[in-house]
Amino acid sequence: MTTIVTGSPGRRDRPDVRLLVSSRGSSLAAAAAARNIANNDSQQMLIDANRLGDDTEIRSDVTVVGAGPAGIVMALELAAGGLDVALVDSGGTRYSKAAQQLGDTPHLDPRRHAPMSECTRRQLGGATVIWGGRCLPFDPVDFDEREFVPHSRWPVTYDELRPFFQRTCDYFVCGRSEFDLHRIEGVEQTSIVPRLPDAEVLTSSLERWSLPTNFGREYGSDLERSDRIKVYTGLTCTEIETDASGSRVAALHGKSLAGKPVTLRSSRYVLSCGTLETTRLLLASDRRHPGGIGNHSDHLGRYYMGHISGRAARVRFTTPPRETVFGFDRDTDGVYLRRRFSFAREFLHEQRLTNVVAWLVNPEIGDPSHRNGMLSFAYLALSSRLGKYFASDAIRKAAIGEGRPAAMAHLANMLRDPFRTLAFMPTFGYKRFVARRKIPGFFIYSSSNTYMLHYHGEQVPNPQSRVSLADDTDRLGLRRLKIDLRFLPQDVDGIVRAHRHWDAFLRRHGRGSLEYVVDDVEGHVRDNAADGFHQAGTTRMSREPADGVVTPDCNVHGFEDLFVNSGSIFVTSGQANSTFMILVFALRLADHLKRLASRGGRR
Description:
Blueprint: E1 2-5, E2 19-21, H1 28-41, E3 46-48, E4 56-65, H2 69-80, E5 85-88, H3 97-100, H4 116-119, E6 134-135, H5 158-161, H6 165-172, E7 201-202, E8 206-209, H7 215-225, E9 229-233, E10 235-242, E11 249-256, E12 261-271, H8 275-284, E13 307-317, E14 329-330, E15 336-339, E16 342-343, H9 345-351, E17 356-361, H10 373-383, H11 393-400, H12 407-416, H13 418-434, E18 450-458, E19 466-473, E20 479-484, H14 489-508, E21 512-516, H15 521-527, E22 562-564, H16 579-598
Parallel strand pairs: 1-4, 3-9, 4-5, 4-12, 5-9, 12-22
Antiparallel strand pairs: 1-2, 6-8, 7-16, 8-15, 10-11, 11-12, 13-18, 13-21, 14-15, 17-18, 19-20
Helix pairs in contact: 2-7, 2-16, 6-16, 10-12, 14-15
């Protein structure tokens, strides 16, 4: 057996990597090869698991599973606190089809849930390799005790998490942690259209956009330079082994893509491998825990959530068209901002309304009836064979929609307005693909002051919306997931009523109205409810073991050395995508682990 020790507790200098080769029939050649690996490891912190010796054992202060944004930040923060970290990921520095396929599953409803290959990325950087860069936290109302939203009680408060927002923004490179236009200097018009006040409806709340920041590319050199971090790529954790008491982790077991077994032993373990993969690993670790580790109260895998989103209406403003803020703003740091329609916290409580927002969008670019050359050019570019280089599959498919291409009609649109189309190409190309801070998208001015409205709302926690293990396995022998994402009538009702309130607010203030683009709004919202990209829930946080899977400190109930750091701990999904808040909790957990270590908490 080969043992790689990533560092000696308490040492600040570069640790010597020690090599222990057992006498169980190890040949001199195998020992020499293993010794070479260990010597290389002391100089290189990115280690391909396929190059490790047979039955390798890796020791560290903390093992972090998953090198997405949360795992990378966790490793960097712990290393800065003097802890030696083994950071483990199934993928490598580049996309690997074989690694990505480990997370595939046929056990889902494609009408409700996107393919896992489009939702996740097994690669250094995780989902930030393919995301758009949208950054915003949950709202205070999401942490309120809302008796009209079942199963929504968080054991932590918004005020506890707010201090971590700026550090999170710094990692995302999205500027200051201000998400209200009233608090940002240099903004002359805080509303989407002139003289529309903030009351029960708000139009001054905003979201920020990162570079978009690919954490593998942005922080890869920091990982490599660290004396205390070793990144093991191509290594998939397949089981959490507990000791005889069943309340401590004895080891994590993993395999390389080639099937080589690897054992990881640490004082503490952090699962940062994404919402569903974290839950999958806990479910599969059932040797001493029937139903999986953390399933003491039958909550593991339940309350799976995302968001309910789509388009059912357009907004027609009655204000001067040139005064509508229909695109992206930029703050003094150059960060792109986008305004939304949202609701005041008190109004949501008063109306017993789920948290829903909406923002202005272009017409469907795949429909040539928009007669706009720039939109047609974007459609033809994204739907071509080169489209995969312009955007991730998920973003590209959402943009071009479904249906039979009408290339000639789109070409006619471009020829109808050749000068503006030609001027648009290089300008947008530079801003979207060349500039370091890339523009998140583009908006087309409407002379009629009419824009499509994209809604985005929380999904109510539902114990019947869940994931579980299937009977078939991946190539490493880990059972695949069965995904049963369910939407409730309350999810649909929140979207329908939000539109009514927005329409009434615009009409009352004489600033416009909504025009529905479907006959049956409720049916349209219900039939198009689907997600899979903003995964949340399945290891929900709770104060008492009977109510969830992890504690407010993110350790699995009953375990002092096993922690979860992913969107799976979320009690509600809010209106925001989950990435920002996952990093907020990662920083909070990293500080907690550093405090434990400073008290002599190492084994």
